[in-house]
Amino acid sequence: MKLLRFIHNNKKLYGIAQHENVRVIHGDIFGEYTATDTILKIEDIKILPPCDPTKIVCVGLNYYEHQLEMNEFADKFPILFIKPNTAVIAHNENIINPKGVDRVDFEAELAVVIKKRAKNIKKGTAKDYILGYTCFNDVTAREIQKQDGQWTRAKSFDTFAPVGPYITTEVEPDNLDIQLLVNGQVRQHSNTNKLIWNVDFLVEQISNIMTLLPGDIIATGTPSGCGKMEDGDKVEVIIEKLGTLTNHLIGGEERLK
Question: Do residues 40 and 46 make contact, with C-beta atoms less than 8 angstroms apart?
Answer without folding.
Answer: no
